[in-house]
Amino acid sequence: MGLFDGLMGNASEMNAKKAEQEVSDLLSNAELKLWVSGSSEPIEKTFNKQLNIYKVQAVLANYICG
User: Fold this and answer.
1) Mapping DSSP to helix (H, G, I), strand (E, B) and coil, where does residue 10 land?
2) Which residues pair with 46 in a beta bridge?
3) Spatial CA neighbour of 43 closest among 34, 31, 51, 52
4) Mind listing the pLDDT tens digit for each residue in 31-49?
5) Helix (H, G, I), strand (E, B), or coil: what is residue 46?
6) Distance from the CA of 4 to the CA of which of 20, 40, 53, 58 falls in 20 to 30 A?
7) Assessment of whether the complete model's pTM goes beyond 0.85
């Protein structure tokens, strides 16, 4: 069991809602950097927790990748 514990580290099951509550402050802001061809600096935007950054990512991926 020692070898298996070493491979898994401190892995254990956790309630997803409880984990989300514990890290909500860490996830409250997100930063997006878009590197555009021909531009030396990226377009930078910072989002707060009122906007779901994953939805922004999905829209951008859909637009870029089709």
Assistant:
1) coil
2) 31
3) 34
4) 889 899 999 999 998 888 7
5) strand
6) 20
7) no
Q: In the numeric block, which tokens belong to residue 53?
A: 């950054």
Written as one letter, the residue type at 15 is: N
What was the pLDDT predicted at 62?
92
- The owner of tokens 């590197």 is 35
Better-predicted residue by pLDDT, 4 or 34: 34
pLDDT at 56: 85
* Token pair recorded at residue 31: 């930063």
Q: With contact defined as beta carbons under 8 Å apart, do 16 and 36 qualify?
A: no
What is the Cα 39 distance to its own chain's centre? 25
Burial of 16 (0-12, 13-18, 19+ CB in 10 A): exposed
